Amino acid sequence: MRGLRPQAVAARIGEIAPRTAQFADQWPTGQDVEVLPPVRHALAEIGVRYLFSEDAPALLPFASQLFLAREVVVHPSRWVWPRWVPTPARRFRTRQQVAFVDALRPIVRRRRSSGRIGDDVLGQMLRPSSRYGLLPEEAILDSLPGITVATFETPSRAAGWILLHLAQYPQAAGRVAAEAALLPADPAATTSAHLDGLQYTQALVREVLRLHPPTWLLTRRATRQTQLADYTIDAGSTVLVCPYTAHRDAREHPEPDRFRPERWLDDSGSPTKPGVFLAFGTGPHACEGAALAMAMLTLMTAQTARLYHLSEPPGAEPGYRVTTLEGLATAGLHLRATLRS
Description:
Layout: H1 6-10, H2 13-25, E1 32-34, H3 36-52, H4 56-74, H5 88-114, H6 121-126, H7 137-150, H8 153-168, H9 170-180, H10 192-197, H11 199-211, E2 218-221, E3 226-228, E4 231-233, E5 238-241, H12 243-246, H13 290-307, E6 308-311, E7 321-323, E8 329-331, E9 334-339
Antiparallel strand pairs: 1-9, 2-5, 3-4, 6-9, 7-8
Helix pairs in contact: 2-3, 2-13, 3-4, 3-8, 4-5, 5-7, 8-11, 8-13, 9-11, 9-13
């Protein structure tokens, strides 16, 4: 998708950075704070605005309800119902999808009728492409609910792990803070060059994604019979790929269980080989929003470390629960922020 390509994201860094700085500025100090709700709200604002620009405020409440509906549907229950059974959770999800589409439809029609289609992702979808021509209205409306939730759902889970590592590895957090000190005082003045300068911060983000990929299980369908090691995979078979275990393969990642962001700065470059780093998938079905996610996560990490030391709540028990439903997440994560001197 044109609007999510790396060059498109790079051109809009100045729109992404202010909300990450605002997230850091608003973190209450000196108290244990549940992290994921404010993280999710901040990333939802960034993602929805990136997709819809000035129309984002009208769509953000519907996007939040869509996320909630997805969470309700995947929540475990006593009974496993066939997909065709209209359970209350599935009916709730359908209602939220309809509500989102009903809010988006007049925006699409207004932009098309006025000729002011915009330069955001929706605007790019409204422009004819050499490959698909002019997309029908229903094709746009069908695809955007999933794209909208994806801009903040998985990045929110990733951000939880990243902020936890800032608390657990203060020396690494200090290196991030030193890089972040070079960012502009006005976040709106942040450019792709500033983002490129956050090399250690990006390495830290990638290392956390290596150790704790939010999408820890991928599915692919074999289009033809093939051999995988000593196994024959028949055409039409579903293959499960686990990035969590693949990322801990010592053949590709020396000391695979060790948190070492520096490995992404080494000359060997082994983590960047195709098919080795799977946090965003790989191949033709890789996540189209990878560049946007990396920009959001890198800037949020930098702005937070720039202002605060993070710490976990005292006590022997961790201040979070590891969950694997829908994604690898730090459910209930609590952290405390104290101002950096």
